[in-house]
Amino acid sequence: MARACVLLVGLDPDIVDKPPVPELTAAKVRADVEAESAKLETLGYTVKSLLVDDGKTAEVVLTAALTTSRYDCIMIGAGLRVVPPYLLLFEKLINVVHRHAPVSTTLCFNSNPSDTAEACGALGLDHCVADITQMLLTPSASTPYCPIPPSVAPRQRFLRKAQ
User: Fold this and answer.
1) What angle do CA 31, 35, 36 make, to 5 degrees?
2) Where are the beta strands (DSSP E) in the chain?
3) Which numeric CATH code is attached to 5-158?
4) pLDDT over 60 at 107, yes or no
5) How many helices (H) and strands (E) does the chain have?
6) Looking at residue 163, what is its pLDDT?
């Protein structure tokens, strides 16, 4: 049986001048991503990390990744989703995923670099952790969407409240 393949998409920490959380330095983010990737690999997943820029080439780079390989799960990092200057880029990347990922691809979202394995459903890719509000991602026929499991509800504190 083939190993499930996970694509971790995140903002390149080296381009962030002032991190929204001061202790999340570029070195800390990279170390957490490596540790979480290793954790997923230990659990039997194949993992590819894709760091994108602030929008100059991000859509093209993600499109290339999705058209050259198949992923069972795509995790989009909190740095793209919850930091206001990158919200438009996050929306553009979600649209790239909608256009190029197979319908069976699971989307998941972490709340910080150190909970990526949990967000990817390390206990099984048959369900996802979707801690994103409906104002950012609406369920569609092209991409599976999962409600927030009760065990992950505390993550909602990182999200902007729906108006």
Assistant:
1) 120
2) 5-11, 46-52, 73-76, 106-109
3) 3.40.50
4) yes
5) 5, 4
6) 32
